[in-house]
Design goal:
By secondary structure, the chain is α/β, with parallel strands linked by helices. The chain is built from eight helices and six strands, in the order βββαβααβαβαααα. The chain has one domain: Nucleotidyltransferase, domain 5 (2-Layer Sandwich).
């Protein structure tokens, strides 16, 4: 019997701490879920120590650092041009973080060999209290990071189409995902965490002590994408002409 495999991947992108949730299915049945975090370490060049993040149950940590073979100053014409310096820093940071993020995703793809992959990334990025030059630089860097990830997805789609495989990308807004996940489009981190633990029994999957908001956001993105996948499958197999709305409880019953 031919096996049909797919991956549903939620990516909560950030330069400092990207949360990744990867859900595996085989013949439309769940076979596994994994959680990953890509963390930036700025301390190594200052102290010479190797940073080791605090271990959290069932969360794989990957660390990235700025390259030591080329500094921002090496690229600058004027060492006191701080605007250029900050832009070069954020560009280098985006390139390094996307490299590690895509290595995590790529390793799972290589191992699992899926026939279809569904990616979910937030539609837009707007930090709380957006104001001023620093915030604008941060947003420009996150947009850059998103563009690197989307470029990877597009290129992967081209390769998959050649062999009859499927790549899809959805980009819901943060309020849309929060509304789906908690019934509150303005949910804060505490509410997201409470729903993750109480409704989805998230403490069965990972340790919930300490910082996990990026992991929860990636899980919520994955769940939102998963709902769309299930709705699509249901329409194809049950009723091709009727709009199907799947309730959350029905969606996740026996799926995790």
């Amino acid at each position: 019997m031919q096996q049909h495999r797919n991956l549903i991947i939620g990516l909560d992108l950030s330069h400092n701490s990207t949360g990744i949730c990867i859900f595996r299915r085989e013949n439309q049945q769940p076979v596994g879920i994994s959680f990953h975090r890509v963390i930036f370490d700025a301390e190594k060049s200052k102290t010479g120590k190797i940073y080791a993040p605090k271990e959290q149950r069932n969360i794989e940590h990957k660390i990235y650092r700025m390259p030591v073979n080329l500094s921002t100053k090496d690229l600058m014409f004027d060492n006191e041009d701080y605007t250029t310096e900050s832009q070069l820093d954020i560009t280098r940071k985006s390139k390094m973080s996307q490299k590690v993020i895509l290595s995590v995703v790529g390793d799972v793809i290589k191992e699992f060999k899926p026939d279809a992959i569904y990616f979910a990334i937030e539609n837009y990025i707007m930090p709380t209290g957006f104001a001023g030059k620093a915030a604008l630089q941060n947003v420009s860097g996150l947009i850059m990071l998103q563009s690197f990830i989307r470029d990877f997805i597009i290129n992967l789609s081209v390769e998959y189409q050649k062999v009859g495989k499927v790549i899809k990308l959805i980009t819901p807004t943060p309020p849309t995902v929060k509304k789906f996940f908690t019934q509150n489009g303005s949910a804060d981190k505490e509410l997201m965490k409470r729903v993750f633990i109480d409704k989805y029994e998230g403490d069965k999957y990972i340790g919930v002590e300490g910082k996990i908001d990026d992991i929860i956001d990636s899980f919520a993105l994955m769940c939102y994408c998963y709902k769309l996948v299930l709705q699509s499958e249901y329409k194809k197999t049950i009723n091709k002409h009727k709009d199907i709305e799947i309730e959350d409880d029905e969606l996740f019953a026996n799926h995790f």
